[in-house]
Write a structure and sequence with these properties.
One of its GO terms (molecular function) is electron transfer activity. Keywords: Electron transport, Heme, Iron, Metal-binding, Signal, Transport. It comes from Arenicella chitinivorans. The strands form two sheets. The chain has a two-stranded antiparallel sheet with strand order 1-2. The chain has a two-stranded antiparallel ribbon with strand order 3-4. Strand 3 and strand 4 form a beta hairpin. It is built from ten helices and four strands, in the order E-E-H-H-E-E-H-H-H-H-H-H-H-H. By secondary structure, the chain is mainly alpha-helical. It has two domains: 98 residues, Cytochrome Bc1 Complex, Chain D, domain 2 (Orthogonal Bundle); 84 residues, Orthogonal Bundle (Cytochrome Bc1 Complex, Chain D, domain 2), CATH 1.10.760.10. The longest helix is centred in the last third of the chain and has 16 residues.
């Protein structure tokens, strides 16, 4: 389902990258063009529960994700600030406009993340540790700040891997993992128990994410 989308609609978005200035840059995303560009992406992201082969974790739900954040993530893969070979290869050929169109397509999707069955004790610990995260991601991870990702209902294995990658960047001075000043600073102090607890908390929340529907326009 789409949030009031009509064929050939162009939506206006704002871009605010995490860790950068508070200013925004206007960006226009063409939903139909974005759908066409995203068909390759859907090969992995549209499968509910699909897993990355190594390291093994669930490929993230991006239907309903903030458009600004999707653009931020794609630019980070293109610049190799995020070390994932497949995503780097995909992003390398994308222009800024391509990224904005793809982001508009995914962001326009309706999504309702089903709370995952997790260890309740672990999730409770994660809730306690998520107080710092709430500033950017919202109390349950379903925040409305466009430059920061929604986490509520995201796969716990993906959140674990993302936090490990941010921590790895801190440990290797940005040579590995995900190099982001805000998140590497936060993740550098997390133990694996902390990471798994946070992932359990966010995965157990209901949110607006979904695995993308592979074809929305006829």
């Amino acid at each position: 389902m789409l949030n009031k989308i009509y064929k050939n609609t162009v939506v206006t978005l704002t871009f605010a990258a995490a860790g950068l200035s508070a200013g925004t840059v206007a960006a226009a995303g063409d939903l139909v063009r974005g759908e066409n560009l995203a068909q390759t992406c859907n090969g992995c992201h549209a499968g509910e529960g699909y897993r990355n082969p190594g390291p093994v974790y669930n490929i993230p739900k991006i239907g309903g994700q903030h458009a600004d954040y999707i653009v931020t993530a794609l630019k980070a893969y293109r610049s190799k600030e995020r070390s994932h070979g497949t995503m780097q290869a995909q992003a390398a050929s994308l222009s800024d406009q391509d990224m904005q169109d793809i982001a508009a397509y995914y962001a326009a999707m309706d999504g309702k993340s089903k709370p995952a069955l997790v260890n309740a004790k672990l999730a409770k610990l994660g809730k306690e540790k998520s107080v710092t995260c709430a500033t950017c991601h919202g109390a349950t991870g379903n925040g409305d700040q466009p430059g920061f990702p929604k986490l509520a209902g995201q796969y716990d294995s993906y959140i674990v891997q993302a936090l490990k990658d941010y921590r790895a960047a801190a440990q290797t001075q940005g040579k590995e993992g995900r190099n982001n000043a805000v998140m590497t600073g936060f993740a550098s102090g997390l133990s694996i128990d902390d990471i798994e607890a946070l992932a359990a908390w966010y995965a157990s929340q209901e949110g607006d994410l979904s695995a993308p529907q592979p074809k929305l326009f006829k």
